[in-house]
Amino acid sequence: MNLEILMKIAPLPDYKQIKYALFIGPHPDDIEIGCGATVKKLVNQGTEVYFLITTDGGAGSKDPEMTSEKLALIRKEEAKAAGKFLGIKEVEVLSFPDGGIYNLEELITEIVQRIIKIKPDAVFAPDPIRII
């Protein structure tokens, strides 16, 4: 779809008017690394910001002593500490396995439930079309 057409259908919100924002990230630390400055700017202007991390963060360690469960717990605590540092209202980490197999419909349902609960003025998430 042409970007110009997309912007007419769904224009970007005026960030100064955002009262509630939901940031969705696939793994712990993705939101902070990808857009921490934007998060902080919103928090500083009084926006209530929420983080929703869709996987548990249990993959990615090369340490033979590290279990997936232990790593997931560590990364969850790190995400909550980062959220506290940034002034986030709530950091939620879903239990879908990082790098594992899960039901996409269940994941979508979980995300939609959070959107309904929070009622954000803006949702920030990775571009599902862009392949890195």
Task: Summarize the helices and strands and which ones pair or pack.
Elements: H1 3-9, E1 20-25, H2 30-44, E2 48-55, H3 68-86, E3 90-96, H4 104-118, E4 122-124
Keywords:
4 strands, 132 residues, 18% strand, Rossmann fold, alpha/beta
Structural account:
- With 132 residues, this protein is α/β, with parallel strands linked by helices.
- The protein has a single domain (17-124), classed as LmbE-like (Rossmann fold, 3-Layer(aba) Sandwich).
- Helices cover 42% and strands 18% of the residues.
- The chain is built from 4 helices and 4 strands.
- The protein has helices spanning 3-9, 30-44, 68-86, 104-118; strands at 20-25, 48-55, 90-96, 122-124.
- A 4-stranded parallel β-sheet has the order 3-2-1-4, sandwiched between helices.
- Helix 2 (30-44) links the parallel strand 1 (20-25) and strand 2 (48-55).
- The radius of gyration is 16 Å and the shape is globular.
- The model has no long low-confidence stretch (mean pLDDT 92).
Low-confidence stretches: none
Q: What does the overall shape look like?
A: globular
- Assigned CATH class: Alpha Beta
Widest beta sheet: strand line-up: 3-2-1-4
CATH homologous superfamily caption: LmbE-like
| Radius of gyration, whole Å | 16 Å
Q: State the helical fraction.
A: 40-55%
Largest sheet: 4 strands, parallel
Structural class: alpha/beta
N- to C-terminal separation?
19 Å
What share of the residues does DSSP label as strand, in percent?
15-25%
**What's the SSE pattern?**
HEHEHEHE
* Helical stretch tally: 4
CATH fold descriptor: Rossmann fold
